[in-house]
Amino acid sequence: MDFLKISALLFMLAIGGCAKFDYLYEQSVGQISLQSKARDNQEMLKNVRVPAEQKDKIRKIGALKKYFYKYWGKKETAIYSQTTMLQNKAVTYLVIASPYQEIKAYETCFPVMGCFPYLGFFNLEQAKKFAKQKEAENFVTWLRPVYAYSTLGYFTDTILSSFFHYTDYELAELIFHELFHTIFFINNEVELNENLANYFAKEMLEDYFTQANQLDYLHIEQKEELEDKILRKMVVGLAAELQEHYQKLLPQNKEDSEAILDEFLEKKFKPDILKKCQEINIPPKNCFPIQRQWNNASFAAFLTYEKKSDDLEGLRKKLGLDLRGYYLFINKKHNDFKNQSEVPEFSKYLFL
Q1: Alpha-carbon distances of 259 from 115, 136, 245, rounded to whole Å
Q2: Are 178 and 154 in contact (CB under 8 A)?
Q3: Mean pLDDT of 71-92
Q4: Taking CA 310 as the corner, what is the angle to CA 201 and CA 192, rounded to the nearest 5 degrees?
C-alpha cells in the first residue's frame, strides 16, 4: 500500500517542478529503504540478538499506543507495529531557513501535501547542501538531527531504534505527540499542528503515569517540566523582543542582522535566561536555552513548537473543559471552520 502512495505522490509532485520532484523522489527512496528494514515487533521480541532493554522499549511503545487510542476512543491503526533499526542515532536531518531581517521560517509548498516550514533529509550531506543553497539565497539556516517524526499517514510509521534513547517520560510524550497527528491534523498549518500535539501529549502524561501507579516518578518529571515550561515561555517572549528590534532597526544585510542578533544575545537573552535559571535553581550546564545555538532560523524552529502553547492553555481554562472535552471542542471548531470562508486560517479561527 505504501508503494502505491509513493507512486501517486510522485505523479502529483512532478507537476510541481523538477526541484521538488527530485527532493520528494529522494525522500521517498529513503522512506522505502527505512521501511524495507522494518521487522514485525513480535519477531523483534522473539529475536535472541535483540537486547532486553530494547525489547522493553518496544513493549512500552505498544502499551502507550494501546493507551492512547483507548483514551480517545479511536480504533488502533497499524502505526508502530514494526521496528526499524537505524545505522545512525538520528533518522533524518531538518533544515530550517529564515530571512536575515526577521524571525520567520521559509516555507516550501508541495501539491497535495501543502506547505512546510522546514525540509527533512535522510542524507546529512543533502541537508548540508540545501542549507548552503538557502544561505547563498541570503537566508539564515539551522540544521538539526531528528530522532522521531510522523509521515502523516502517507506511510505506516515504524518504531525507530532512535526511540530507545528516550527515558520513559520522554518516550510517553513522544509517542503521544506523534500519535496525536494521526487523529487530528490541519493542512498547511504546521505550527498549530505541532503546538496542539505538544499540548495534548503533555497533558496526557499525568493521567497515564497516575494509572501506572508511578506518582513519585511523575512528580519528579513534572517539576522538571514546569521549570522547562518557564524557560520555554521566556524564549518565546525574548524571540518576540528580537523581532521588534529587527522591525525597528531594519538591517540592510546579513552583517547588520548578525550584529543585532549578537548584541541581543549577549546583552539581553543570555543574562535574562541565566538569571531565571539561577532563580529556579537550574545550574548553567542544565539551562537549555544557554546551551543552544541561536539565530533567526533556530528561533523560528523553536516557535513552530512553542508559540501557541499559552494560547491553547488559556482557551481551555476559559472554556472550563477537561482534556477530552477540549479535543471535541477543537474538532467541532475545525468542522465549523471548513464551512466558512471569512477567516483564512484555522489558527486564527480557533481563538475567535
Answers
A1: 31, 19, 11
A2: no
A3: 95
A4: 60
Cα-based torsion angle of the residue sequence 62, 91, 1, 117 in order, rounded to the nearest 10 degrees: 110
Could you give the angle at the alpha carbon of 61 between the alpha carbons of 53 and 151, nearest 5°? 125
Distance between CA atoms of 199 and 225, rounded to whole angstroms?
12
Render pLDDT for 237-276 as a digit per residue (tens, 0 to 9): 999 999 999 999 999 999 999 999 999 999 999 999 999 9
200 vs 20: CA distance, rounded Å: 33
pLDDT tens for each residue of 35-64: 899 999 999 999 999 999 999 999 999 999
Cβ neighbours for 315, distance < 8 A, ≥ 6 positions apart: 350, 351
Q: 63: helix, coil or strand?
A: helix
User: Cell numbers of 258, please?
Assistant: 548578525
Stretch 319-344: mean pLDDT: 96
Q: Are 156 and 2 in contact (CB under 8 A)?
A: yes
Q: How far is the C-alpha of 124 from the C-alpha of 128, rounded, in Å? A: 6
The mean per-residue pLDDT over the stretch 289-314 comes to 94
Q: How many Cα neighbours within 13 Å face the side chain of 156?
A: 18
Query: Given this model, what pLDDT does residue 332 score?
Result: 97
What residue spans define the domains of the chain? 2-185, 216-349
